[in-house]
């Protein structure tokens, strides 16, 4: 599903070079639930940006769903990303003027899905995340946890092979965090592959596997009991 071999990424900051990633190897098979941990500056965002095809490594290879990401053109890359990856963010990134249902339908507008079918699928996914009765509310009329459920529904709408979630509970209280992690757990049990970045141990405990970065290298890679 995800196969990363020997990737590195260096940033230039004035006269100094910052090695954000330094020889990372990572294989994430289908239907794994992985937490990426590590202190601030350890390379988590850089790795997520590469996994999400938003950025490319300087060295090494990245295969996503069998495709060598570096060797395909921009159009193919955009299509691979739309098809394969659902993004979930700390700040939800919902459109304020659209209802929950319209937000969830949005990714389908780029895939020529007929509107009736888009509406039908978005309605189904909203009920899958427990929000059927909030379909016509705007984000401002929803709680933080409900907003993140909408964002997760939007990430699921194209039936992506992988969900990439960057600090998805960073703006939520502990009870709501628990609810969202239970939702991920539930999606994982239904076969969804999920990668979550977090700096909180408690959140990582919900995952099946925890990969810890330090100074751009994998320091530990273990399975939870
Ligand atoms: P984390 O997400 O674990 O906090 P990052 O991947 O954001 O780590 O950063 C890893 C290192 O790379 C840090 O030292 C950071 O300052 C640096 N870095 C990340 N992105 C950039 C960038 N666009 N320009 C310069 N330095 C960057
Ligand atoms: P977090 O630690 O929450 O993952 P960061 O604050 O490290 O996030 O980074 C947020 C964004 O800013 C990332 O996309 C990263 O690539 C970029 N970034 C991080 N450090 C730098 C830097 N020194 N210069 C420019 N951009 C950076």
Automatic annotation (TrEMBL):
Keywords: ATP-binding, Nucleotide-binding, Transport. Belongs to the ABC transporter superfamily. Macrolide exporter (TC 3.A.1.122) family. Pfam families: ABC_tran (PF00005). It comes from the Bacteria. It comes from Aliikangiella coralliicola. GO terms for cellular component: plasma membrane; transmembrane transporter complex. This is ABC transporter ATP-binding protein. Residues 2-225 form the ABC transporter domain. GO terms for molecular function: ATP binding; ATP hydrolysis activity; transmembrane transporter activity. The lineage of its organism: Bacteria, Pseudomonadati, Pseudomonadota, Gammaproteobacteria, Oceanospirillales.
């Amino acid at each position: 599903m995800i196969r990363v071999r020997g990737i590195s990424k260096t940033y230039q900051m004035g006269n100094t070079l910052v090695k954000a990633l330094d020889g990372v190897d990572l294989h994430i098979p289908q239907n794994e639930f992985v937490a990426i941990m590590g202190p601030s500056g350890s390379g988590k965002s850089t790795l997520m940006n590469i996994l999400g095809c938003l950025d490319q490594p300087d060295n090494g290879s990245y295969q996503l769903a069998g495709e060598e990401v570096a060797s395909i053109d921009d159009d193919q890359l955009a299509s691979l990303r739309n098809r394969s990856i659902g993004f979930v963010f700390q700040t939800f990134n919902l459109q304020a003027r659209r209802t929950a249902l319209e937000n969830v339908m949005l990714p389908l507008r780029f895939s020529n899905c007929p509107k009736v079918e888009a509406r039908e699928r978005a309605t189904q996914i909203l009920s899958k995340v427990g929000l059927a009765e909030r379909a016509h509310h705007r984000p401002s009329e929803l709680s933080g946890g409900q907003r993140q459920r909408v964002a997760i529904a939007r990430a699921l709408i194209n039936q992506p092979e992988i969900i990439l979630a960057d600090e998805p509970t960073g703006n939520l209280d502990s009870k709501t965090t628990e609810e969202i992690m239970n939702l991920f757990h539930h999606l994982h049990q239904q076969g969804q592959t999920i990668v979550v970045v977090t700096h909180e141990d408690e959140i990582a405990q919900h995952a099946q596997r925890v990969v810890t970065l330090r100074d751009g290298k994998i320091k530990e890679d273990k399975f939870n009991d």
